[in-house]
Amino acid sequence: MKNPRLFLPVIFAIIGILACKSYLVGDLLTQSGDVLFVDDFSDPGSGWARASSPSGVMDYDNNGYRIWVNTPNYDLWSTPGLDFSDVRIEVDAAKVGGPDENRFGLICRYRDGQNFYFLIVSSDGYYAIGKVQDGQRTLLGQEMMAYSAAIKTGMDINHLRADCFGAGLMLYVNGMLVAAVQGDDFTSGDVGLLVGTFDQPGADVLFDNFVVLKP
Length: 215
Known about the structure:
The chain contains one helix and 17 strands. The protein has one domain: Exo-inulinase, domain 1 (Jelly Rolls). The longest helix is centred in the N-terminal third of the chain and has 6 residues, at 24-29. By secondary structure, the chain is mainly β. Strands 2, 3, 4, 5, 7, 13, 14, 15 and 17 form a nine-stranded antiparallel sheet that branches. Strands 1, 6, 8, 9, 10, 11, 12 and 16 form an eight-stranded mixed sheet that branches.
């Protein structure tokens, strides 16, 4: 089974954009399936963090957005500075280096670095949905990351989809629903991308074709 270390307090790092644009009024005027935000990462000025430190790198790279984490038991994430309520988020993601025992995926209802939901997978085929609340990480509906054959392993591309709708949180991988839980602690916030490590550093993931839809 996946390393239960995921549930213990870990060091988090965020190097992101603090300013938020209000899209909540736009949410009320849109219909299911409408695009609320899209980014193919071809424009390095589209709002995602561009930062490098001994802990890792977050930047536009090779027509995508790369997060490389060079510290054990560490997470890096970035958000574009938006604000939504109910969303369907999709992205293509592939490991480009580092260990298969990693974690990467999507963030929704991000209030700040201490409060948000995450929906993640790993390059060795595991998944989880959880929250960070008041700085404490908890998985929802499971005690540790669980295996799914829907997740492509190694350096294959995975298409990830996170639905954050009402109190429902759903994770789809390559078109298949792998997890559905309830979470009513946060009702709105930013969206984002996350990559993290376990004992071995070097998790390196490239994201592309990020889109936020009205669910």
